[in-house]
Amino acid sequence: MAPHLNVSAGPDASSLSTLYVNSDLNPTLVSSAHFHGRIAVRIKHFTGDVPEGKERVAEAKYFEEGHGKGMTWSIQVQGRFLKDISTDDLVFGNEFDRPIKDRLPWGTAVALEAAKFIDPNLEHDLYSDKPWAFSPFVATMTRISAVKLSSEPSSSGSDVQEEFRTTAWPVFPSPENSNASDPAYVLDDLSPLIPYPTSSDAAKDVDIDDATLNDLKGGTGPDSAPQAHKTRARWFGDRAHRQSIKVTPEHVLTADFCNSFIDFNTLRLELPYTGGMGFDLKKYWDGQPVRYVCKDKSDGTVFFFIQFKIVDMDA
């Protein structure tokens, strides 16, 4: 039997609502004083909770082809941060309410070293009273793109769905409703965040060369996106670079955080680069939900939460 999960999302821990997993056409809307956007979570062979009145979608087309083939889960986010924030302060990762140091399996240190190969910008303290692990949002995402709106919405309190329609937001990528002009998966291009002169003799605003800037434009080709990911992780791995780049309320970021390391049907974690090392997560679960949090590390402002909770271990 597979564990029964509840997946919820919202602007903060006090206002989480059950997220409609695998429903690309109904992403969860997030509207707060700090963030406007939408979130979709996809889980391969999903057997968990669904919102009241909705049918469970066990399989998502996302996993059948292209970028999603071979993945086992995905968090896709699209949104506007309603204040200027540096890409150094904008972080994404996990927070826990209670200590987990007594529940960590043997081999955790090896696992954390392996994690550095996947995400060299990861910082963590899993042994504190409130454990955490965070990375720069723009560096840790598997794919991420930025679009600058032609005009900033007039009010941060406006209706979010109306904002999507009236301010020329980019489409929310989905294999379920893609066509010749709309992408099925998130593309990789953060070049719109980087102020760069159009004249070759103008002074550069940011320390970046033409080749790196070109690599950050992932495009649509099958080989270009991995190059963009590697270049992005390397270039934004430099704190000085992250501090020089700001995300403003005029920018819409679309990002996909996905991998194939967790099997939600067995709750087993397989670690790459370890020769087959893995953990049965059920043995170490202490009842806490696993929260993915996007926040401003400089002042603690939370932009959005995604929470995974085991409702029944043997449903």
UniProtKB/TrEMBL annotation:
Q: Which organism is it from?
A: Tilletiaria anomala (strain ATCC 24038 / CBS 436.72 / UBC 951)
Q: Which domain of life is it from?
A: Eukaryota
What's the protein name? DUF1769-domain-containing protein
Question: What's the short name of a Pfam family annotated to this entry?
Answer: Duc1
Start and end residues of each Domain of unknown function at the cortex domain: 5-311
